[in-house]
Amino acid sequence: MNTAPRFSHSFVARTSRRRALLALLSLPFCAAAAAPSAASNDKAAQKAARRKAREDALDALRRGEILPLARILDIASRHLPGDTIEVEFKGGPVYEVKVLTADGSIREIVLDARTGALVRIKDP
After folding, report:
1. pLDDT of the chain along its 124 residues, tens only?
2. Helix (H) or strand (E) segment spanning residue 115
3. Contact 61, 68 (CB under 8 A)
4. Which of 13, 53, 88, 110 could form a disulfide with 119, with the two C-beta atoms 3.0–4.6 Å apart?
């Protein structure tokens, strides 16, 4: 004798539709759960790139190919007096120095990293 429960066709159809709907609704959550791993890989790659850039800059400084930061800050302050709030070494090679001026504005001075020559002064 068959003891398996008997389901009507309409019950099976409703249950299948519910499962399909739940599966569709859960897809964005599955994608969101997978996204942090991709984001963490991007962050790790960015961190590695920043570390490599720092090492490259330090090597260039040791070889005498670029000026030391203290010298760059002195040159920047002669061109654009104020308080230095950020310095970035960029490829090219150039230093970008952000300065808070006496009137409260933030300006950026770009200096050649090899010679200290003024490339430009701009508002960021």
Report:
1. 555 545 444 544 444 444 544 443 443 344 444 445 666 789 999 999 889 888 988 999 999 999 999 999 999 999 999 999 999 988 789 999 999 999 999 999 999 999 999 999 997 6
2. none
3. yes
4. 110
- 46, 61 in Cβ contact below 8 A? no
Rounded Cα–Cα distance for residues 37 and 47 (Å): 15
Distance, in Å, from the CA atom of 91 to the CA atom of 108, rounded to the nearest integer, reads: 16
| R_g over Cα of the chain | 30
Distance CA 47, CA 25 (A): 35
Q: Which two tokens stand for residue 100?
A: 């808070």
Coil vs helix vs strand at 87: strand
CB 111 within 8 A of CB 105: no
Instruction: Count CB atoms within 10 A of the CB of residue 78.
Output: 11
